[in-house]
């Protein structure tokens, strides 16, 4: 029994992918965020030569991760290895907009540095912006490692496949779930406990759009649940806390739970 068990394990070890450890991937991710936002980490770079050296070291770390990831498998996405660094400027610009959205959207925020250093919302969206680019380039396992690392650290679970527009504000954050095929517009604000999920968890629906679409300038308050790939929340909607939504909501609508009459109430946004 022992010998057959060990033989089985040996076969699994031999056939396993040479994917780098999660610790190595997340260490690279943390270094990358600190490079983009000096206030996030502890490393201060004071001259151009040191900055260029750090940039090159990060590129080398990334290529080491990809070479290890792809060594024993054919992966056409390997040709996209440089895409992450080609998009770094765009990622930085997007994240600066997200910081602006969180700072202006939270009266408790005293500075942008406070948002970068302490807000779980920033940490969650930073991980997503980077993981989403990696996911789009075809390195989905690496992207998932980063997104789950952020999930563990912040309590915010954003699938790297989700598409999120500029000026995204996560307030508090704990318990937020954003599914793989979710599409979120610009200037959207989401509070703790919000779920943007699917009405079906059948494996055969994996390749379909299962999660909702959120328009521009939408606010979704705490513990609201919005489900379904055909569910569209129109622009400038306000979704009240504890709402349960499985159908589309027209633009400029305020939707909230009427506790007295125990149903969802729709009113136009004034």
The CATH architecture of the largest domain is: Orthogonal Bundle
Determine the mean pLDDT. Answer: 91
Spatial strand arrangement across the major sheet: 3-6-9-12-14-15
Largest sheet: 6 strands, mixed
Give me the secondary-structure category. alpha/beta
Name of the top-level CATH class of the largest domain: Mainly Alpha
Unreliable runs, pLDDT <50, ≥5 residues? none
CATH fold node name of the largest domain = serine acetyltransferase, domain 1
CATH superfamily name of the largest domain?
serine acetyltransferase, domain 1
- Please estimate the helix content: 40-55%
The general outline is globular
- Oligomeric state of this protein: single chain
How many independent structural domains?
2
GO molecular function: acyltransferase activity
Protein name: Serine acetyltransferase
GO biological process, one term: amino acid biosynthetic process
Organism: Marivirga aurantiaca
Layout of strands and helices, then pairs:
Layout: H1 2-15, H2 22-36, H3 48-70, H4 83-86, H5 88-105, H6 112-118, H7 120-136, H8 140-154, E1 157-158, E2 163-164, E3 169-170, E4 177-178, E5 183-184, E6 189-190, E7 195-197, E8 213-214, E9 219-220, E10 225-227, E11 232-233, E12 238-239, E13 244-245, E14 253-258, E15 263-268
